[in-house]
Amino acid sequence: AQSVTQLDSQVPVFEEAPVELRCNYSSSVSVYLFWYVQYPNQGLQLLLKYLSGSTLVKGINGFEAEFNKSQTSFHLRKPSVHISDTAEYFCAVSEPSWGAQKLVFGQGTRLTINP
Amino acid sequence: KAGVTQTPRYLIKTRGQQVTLSCSPISGHRSVSWYQQTPGQGLQFLFEYFSETQRNKGNFPGRFSGRQFSNSRSEMNVSTLELGDSALYLCASSLGLQLAGPHNEQFFGPGTRLTVL
Predict the structure, then answer these.
(1) What is the separation, in whole angstroms, between the first and last Cα of chain A?
(2) Contact check, Cβ <8 Å, A108/B42
């Protein structure tokens, strides 16, 4: 079964420092990959997605992610974080063969930005 | 354009009761998915509806059911509530069936927080 592992449950970072949130998935077939952000008491918001093509994907709020098929990874990066980036981040995967909206999520990474 | 709305936002029930949660998708969206979010299990897919048909179902017991109406609004029902059903229930809507479609992003609602006592 498809699974997603987010290697860090919590990541504390100082403001204006770079950050990388790690995500690995288990699949030998083609996949779609997503990063979502969840602010307190809110639903999920899509940051970026990889469907096909260029392995470097740029998203909203200055985030980007790189799809690495050989390492089955899809790590999220931002070169300089802000206090407002404090939130929980979820990596998710879907398979084209599912023909559906179903997403399998990782356990989430809580990003805390310290001043 | 209004986003995905879920009602109620908060709900408290006791064990053994049943509950119905409602989701109104973004206008024009025909696909609705439901997810359960708990601290222990994280985000888990419940089911997906498109044009009133259930297209996909997650690994949940039969106590969890749902439906979609002709106006794309969706409801999910949980019968015989258990303590472990306490969770944030999220609804998401999108235009069509395929996540890979060029404009087919899933938009999530704020969720309904269900507490079972």
Answers:
(1) 41
(2) yes
Give CA A90 to chain center in angstroms. 5
Per-residue CA distances from A21 to A24, A61, A88, A91, A100 (Å):
10, 15, 11, 9, 27
Mutation to test the A interface, candidates B4, B106, B107, most A Cβ within 10 Å: B106
HSE-up (13 A, CA, CB side) for residue A82 = 4
Q: In one letter, which amino acid is A69? A: K
Nearest chain B residue (CA) to A40? B110
pLDDT tens-digit map of B35-63:
999 998 999 999 999 999 998 899 999 99
pLDDT digits (tens, 9 = 90+) for B59-86: 999 999 999 999 999 999 999 999 999 9
Residue in A with minimal Cα distance to B89: A43
Task: Measure the CA–CA gap between A14 and A97, rounded to whole angstroms.
Answer: 41
* Binary contact (A32, B100; C-beta < 8 A): yes
CB A13 within 8 A of CB A112: yes
Q: Could you identify the residue written with the tokens 């006791």?
A: B14
Is the separation of the CB atoms in A76 and A68 below 8 Å?
no
pLDDT number for residue A97: 73
